[in-house]
Design brief:
Chain lengths: ~150, ~150
C-alpha cells in the first residue's frame, strides 16, 4: 500500500493526493457535501470500520479539510463539517462524479444529478478558461514552468 | 490494506475511485498528460517500484484508461498512452492541481501553470453550468435523484 509519501514532490497534484488520495477519504468528503456530519452516520452509509474512519477524519482535521464542532460538550461528541479548504474540493468531487457518470455508469444510469438553483435546470459542469471563458480540454493548453518550478 | 471494493456502490464517485483512487494511479495519469509514455521514464520520474508500476498500468489498461502501443514488436516494448476515457480525466487532474496550488503550495509557488493556446494567457479554470454558463460552486446546486438512483 502506502510506502511512499507524496508530500515532498514539487507537484500540487502529488501534494493534494497526500491529503485526499487515501482509500476512503474522498468518499468521506463526498458525504460531507451531502450533509452527513455524524461519526455513526458515516459508518452506516460507508460501511467503513470505525478505526479506519477515525484515522481518516483525524487526518482531514489535521489538514484543515474538515473541522470538528462539538454538539454535546459533556459527552465530547462532534459534528464533522467541511472547512473552506474542504468546500473548495467541490470541483474535484464533481468532475470525478461526472467522469464516472460518463465512462462507467453511463448516461441514463446516473445515481444522482445536480440542479442549478439559479437557472433551475438539471446541469452538468463545464471547465472553462477564466481569461476568455472558452471551454478547456487538455489539448487546448500548454504546460509552462510556474514560479515554484525547480 | 484495501479490504473493500467500491465497485458495487451505487455512486459514480466510488466507481471512479475504484479505477483511479489507488495510491500512485493519478500521478501516472498526470505523467501521461505530460507526455511520458515509456515504462522506464515513469519509474525514473515517479520513483515508483517496477512491480507497483506494472500493477497500476495493468489495471489502467484493463479499465481502458491507458492503452499499450507496441513500439518494438520484436522485444515486446510498449508505449503507454491515454485513451479517450483517460484523456477525459483532464478536468479531474486539473481541478486537483488547482486545489493544491491554492490551498497547499500557495499562490506564487505553483510548480507549473497552464497557458491557453487560443487566448494566449496563463490561465486557471473555472467550473460553470453547461446550461446557463454561470460559475458553479457547491451551494449553487441541489442534489436530486438520477435515473440510476436506488
Amino acid at each position: 500500500m502506502r510506502k511512499v509519501s507524496f508530500a515532498d514532490m514539487n507537484c500540487s497534484i502529488a501534494q493534494a493526493l497526500e491529503i485526499i488520495g487515501e482509500w476512503w477519504t474522498l468518499l468521506i468528503v463526498r458525504d460531507c457535501f451531502l450533509g452527513i456530519r455524524r461519526f455513526d452516520d458515516f459508518v452506516e452509509r460507508l460501511g467503513i470500520s470505525r478505526n479506519v474512519l477515525t484515522d481518516r477524519l483525524d487526518k482531514l482535521v489535521a489538514a484543515d479539510v474538515i473541522e470538528r464542532r462539538p454538539y454535546d460538550e459533556g459527552r465530547l461528541r462532534y459534528d464533522y463539517v467541511l472547512t473552506p479548504k474542504g468546500r473548495a474540493l467541490w470541483p474535484v468531487i464533481t468532475t470525478l462524479r461526472e467522469w464516472g457518470d460518463e465512462w462507467i455508469t453511463g448516461e441514463g444510469n446516473e445515481p444522482i444529478l445536480i440542479e442549478h438553483r439559479s437557472c433551475g435546470n438539471v446541469t452538468h459542469t463545464r471547465l472553462v478558461c477564466d481569461c476568455c471563458g472558452e471551454p478547456l480540454v487538455a489539448r487546448d493548453v500548454r504546460v509552462v514552468d510556474g514560479p515554484g518550478s525547480r
